[in-house]
Specification:
The protein is of the alpha/beta class and about 425 residues long. Helix 4 packs across helix 5, helix 5 packs parallel to helix 6 and helix 10 packs across helix 15. The longest helix is centred in the last third of the chain and has 26 residues.
Length: about 425
């Protein structure tokens, strides 16, 4: 909790009760009057950070959110929300409109701190606020995005522009948070941090208690199996955007290979497809693998869906920060197969908390999935160690504490700089 040091002055004749009461009222007055105001900006999946925002609010921060997604989840928990549009793909016209929208939101909200997530927003927000010398901007670098994930000519051509834009954005950034050490080293090596402070905070925090509550309040596995037509099949689950960058074509190839050896296995794919633009897998591609591949689209009950799975497959080719899907699967104790990429290997340590495979390697992916289906004892041990790792290193409370400490430091530094900039008023007096 953020407290005012001035409330520590105590009168000699105060009783213990009055001290506690006076301290309580003074602290509440301090929070109401001067609690640091954080504006947290993200993309269409920003509602996943609501537990993080609520945890910050419990620590005394005033929290406002802005994003491109549905406002309903924020309204349900009483978090002030501002919706704006930005295009995740290359679109100069949309980017110009987003810059204007960000400036307008900041003018209305008047925060002391802004924390932005998303590869594009990490550039747009600092650029939008380059003339604002009051607000402290924090960026979370949650992966290197499509530019460093794709091998397409366009992506390769944009890598120099990416580095230039990141260097430019760093000029108006107070701090950069990295979710994995590979990305942090990459930014340092390519001098993309300027004078901004940088630190490592793995993941965005998993609400362990909330995850358990969602499972307890959801449908039973039997009900879900009946709803999805799964019968008694073994389930290989993927929770991801249905895009090529996330390795879905590789997964479909692996599913076909597994179907030849173990025809009773069903692959359950949970996540959006229509929103993924030119990189989305087509419905025709999915249909070619029916009936052993079932794509449900996005679902709000992922914690419950995880209970159905025997194996969690995450063959992403995308440079992730720390994928939330992996954290949730690990927390659920599932044996995981994922690609050997930064972010993924922060959760899945090969042979210890899961299995890793090279990207774009459907045969190896299929072999590792079959290994886990055949040796259930070994699979269970991997899942148990993965769950323990997430509880120890990625819990919401730990991650929130680290963020809150950074925010408090930045607010204190900004206040001190403001004091230093205020000129002293000359003393009045002297001879009449």
């Amino acid at each position: 909790m953020i407290t005012d040091p001035a409330t520590a002055r105590l009168g000699a004749n105060q009783t213990v009760t009055s001290i506690v009461e006076d301290s309580f009222h003074a602290e509440n007055l301090w929070i109401a009057r001067a609690a640091p105001h954080l504006l947290c900006i993200g993309g269409e999946d920003h509602s996943l950070r609501i537990p993080f925002l609520l945890a910050l609010r419990e620590k005394g921060f005033r929290v406002t959110a802005a994003a491109s997604g549905d406002p309903a989840p924020f309204a349900q928990v009483g978090v002030e929300y501002h919706r704006f549009h930005f295009d995740r793909f290359v679109s100069p016209v949309a980017d110009a409109a987003a810059l204007k929208a960000i400036r307008k939101i900041v003018d209305v909200v008047q925060p002391q701190l802004i924390h932005c997530f998303d590869t594009k927003l990490n550039v747009l927000v600092p650029l939008a606020l380059r003339h604002n010398h009051i607000v402290q901007t924090v960026r979370t670098i949650n992966g290197l995005g499509w530019v460093y994930s794709s091998r397409s000519p366009m992506a390769l051509g944009l890598r120099l522009a990416y580095r230039i834009l990141q260097r430019l954005a760093s000029q108006w950034t107070a701090a950069a948070i990295f979710q994995n050490s590979d990305d942090q080293s990459f930014f340092v090596r390519h001098r993309m941090l300027g004078r901004a402070r940088h630190l490592l905070i793995p993941g965005s925090g998993i609400d362990i208690e909330g995850f358990g509550a969602a499972i307890r309040s959801g449908a039973s596995p039997a009900e879900l199996r009946a709803e999805l037509g799964l019968g008694t099949s073994e389930i290989v689950l993927t929770v991801s955007r249905m895009t090529r960058q996330k390795g879905i074509p590789t997964l479909l190839e692996a599913a076909a290979l597994i179907h030849e050896h173990r025809p009773g296995v069903r692959f359950l794919l949970v996540g959006p497809r229509e929103s993924e633009g030119p990189w989305a897998v087509t419905q025709e591609e999915l249909d070619r693998h029916a009936p052993y591949v079932i794509a449900t689209g996005p679902r709000p009950d992922v914690p419950v869906i995880l209970r159905l799975a025997h194996v969690f497959a995450f063959p992403t080719e995308y440079r992730e920060g720390v994928p939330r899907a992996l954290l949730e699967a690990a927390l659920a104790g599932l044996p995981i197969v994922t690609t050997d990429l930064p972010g993924c290997r922060d959760v899945v340590r090969n042979g210890v908390t899961g299995l890793t495979v090279p990207p774009r390697a459907p045969k190896i992916l299929a072999e590792r999935i079959l290994d886990l289906l055949r040796d259930r004892e070994a699979a269970f041990a991997l899942g148990a160690r993965a769950s323990e790792l997430v509880r120890r290193e990625f819990g919401l409370e730990l991650v929130t504490e680290r963020h809150a400490a950074l925010y408090a430091e930045l607010v204190d530094r900004s206040a001190q700089q403001t004091v230093n900039r205020v000129p002293c008023e000359p003393e009045r007096g002297g001879l009449d």
